Amino acid sequence: MTAATSKEATDVEATTELESTNETANETMVVTPPADSKPEARRPWPTVVLAAVVVLLAAVIVVAGLQWRTAAQTEQARTDGLAAAVDLTPKLLTFDYRTLPVEVGQAQATTTGDFAKEYSTLVQQYLTPNAMKQQFVTHVTVRDKSVVSAEPGKLVAMLYLSQVTTSATLTAPRLDNSSVRVTLTEVGGQWLVAGLERV
Q1: Which regions in the chain score pLDDT beneath 50?
Q2: Each residue's pLDDT tens digit, 66-93
Q3: Which of these, 122, 140, 125, lies nearest to 180 by C-alpha position?
Q4: Alpha-carbon span 142 to 158, nearest angstrom
Q5: Which of 183, 184, 179 is nearest to 198 (CA)?
Q6: Chain Cα centroid distance, residue 25
Q7: What angle do CA 147, 89, 95 make, to 5 degrees?
Q8: Which label site among 25, 82, 118, 171 has the fewest CB atoms less than 10 Å from its CB?
Q9: Strands across the sheet with 137-151, in order?
Q10: C-alpha torsion 45→46→50→53, nearest 10
Q11: Which domains does the chain have, with CATH numbers?
């Protein structure tokens, strides 16, 4: 083999080896991702869960706040409503034939709703004619009291009453004990009688 032929063979081998190296490098670059490549973005589940927890917590706080407010208003109704029942009921049932128009006017102002109409009818058709004719004087006091039910703005109470009555037909004062169920509602910040019945 001549020197020229040997040199050509050497150059061919070198060229083949270089091409092989370049092909291998290209394959490696295709298969291996760049070092700075980022993984596929994932849905931020922790953030979603945290948001759901915050919303749920807020709902719980709102519900608890409403329950506390309702409980506080109910307790207020028990206190203020019962005091109003004790104060207003005797005004509805106590009268003196000599001052009846004034007392009826004051009593009427303590009523509300349908009961206000019922009380007005009772006074006009029964109380006034009979009180004037028989000279009735009746005084009512509360012996005992209890709460039947209470809610914000409404109270039902049971009152135990003592009633002393004198009249032109009685030779001595008459004492009667009775019990009444009184319903009160709060109207414009004022407790008024919305119902009264003997039990």
Answers
A1: 2-12, 14-15, 18, 20-21, 24-31
A2: 555 667 878 999 999 999 999 999 999 9
A3: 140
A4: 10
A5: 179
A6: 75
A7: 160
A8: 171
A9: 95-96, 137-151, 154-166, 174-187, 190-198
A10: 70
A11: 55-198 (3.10.450.230)
Count other C-beta atoms under 10 Å from residue 78's C-beta.
Answer: 16
- In the three-class reduction of DSSP (H, G, I as helix; E, B as strand; rest coil), residue 38 is classed as coil
Q: What is the pLDDT of residue 153?
A: 93
Residue 91: both structure tokens together:
């005004």
Distance between CA atoms of residues 196 and 199, nearest Å: 10
Q: What is the pLDDT of residue 45?
A: 65
How many angstroms separate the CA atoms of 60 and 113, rounded? 37
| pLDDT for res 121 | 95
Residues 77, 151 contacting (CB under 8 angstroms)? yes
**Residues 117, 119, 125, CA angle at the centre, nearest 5°?**
100
Count how many Cα atoms sit within 13 Å of the Cα of residue 35 in the half-sphere of its side chain. 0
H-state helical runs in 32-109: 45-76, 82-93, 100-108
Do 136 and 130 contact (CB within 8 A), yes or no? yes
What tokens does 28 get?
Answer: 């490696």
For the entire predicted model, the pTM comes to: 0.66
Residue that the structure tokens 């004034």 belong to: 102
